[in-house]
Structure formats: C-alpha cells, structure tokens
Amino acid sequence: MVKKLNPILNSQLRLSIMSILISVESADFSFLKSKTEATSGNLSVQLEKLKEVKYIEIEKLFVAKRPKTVCKITAED
Predict the structure, then answer these.
(1) What is the 3-class SS of 3-18, one letter each residue?
(2) What distance in Å separates the CA atoms of residue 32 and residue 47, rounded to the nearest whole number?
(3) pTM for the whole thing?
(4) CB-based contacts of 62-68 (< 8 A; 24+ apart in sequence)
(5) 14-41, pLDDT tens digit by residue?
(6) Which domains are seen in the chain, by residue range?
(7) Residues 6+ apart with CB under 8 A from 22
(8) How far apart are CA 53 and CA 38, in angstroms?
(9) Are 26 and 75 in contact (CB under 8 A)?
(10) Could you please report the per-residue DSSP string of 18-74?
(11) CA 33, CA 17: separation in Å to the nearest integer?
C-alpha cells in the first residue's frame, strides 16, 4: 500500500526543495535558488512553510561577515 503524499508537498516548489535536500547533506539558500529557479521571496516563504511542519531545519549564520542560510532535512522521529 502506498502512503498518501502530505498536502504540504503538493506545491511544486516545496517538492523540488525536498527532492534536492534528500540528495545532499545540506544546501544553502543560493544553491536552492539556482536549482529551483525560484525568486528569493518565494523560496524564503516556502522554506519557512517546510520548517513550520518540521520537514527541514534552517540555520542562519555569517560567513566572512555575510549572512548565509543553510537548510537540511530533519531527522525522522
């Protein structure tokens, strides 16, 4: 029996983000933006939605005094 897809993944962009993150340990915002071809605003909103349902973790840090956002899939419970 096939499990039903969570409705949060009905968005093409959110599904794309999850597909990318499954294949890497983590990805920064710029990498996800280039791979998905999404606008910064749309990508930011969709990442936050995935974070709210605990599908991903988002870490905001500074590298060489520049902000960097890194995303990764959360561990299964």
Answers:
(1) CCCCHHHHCHHHHHHH
(2) 10
(3) 0.88
(4) 68/28, 68/29
(5) 999 999 999 999 999 999 999 999 999 9
(6) 9-73 (1.10.10.10)
(7) 73
(8) 21
(9) no
(10) HHHHHTSS-EEHHHHHHHHT--HHHHHHHHHHHHHTTSEEEEEEEETTEEEEEEEEP
(11) 9
Cβ–Cβ contacts within 10 Å for residue 21, how many?
A: 19
Whole-angstrom Cα distance, residue 24 to residue 19? 9
The dihedral over CA atoms of 7, 11, 14, 15, expressed in degrees to the nearest 10, equals: 80
Tokens of 11: 């968005």
Cα–Cα distance for residue pair 71/68, rounded to 1 Å: 10
Are 26 and 72 a contacting pair, CB within 8 Å?
A: yes
pLDDT value at position 76? 72
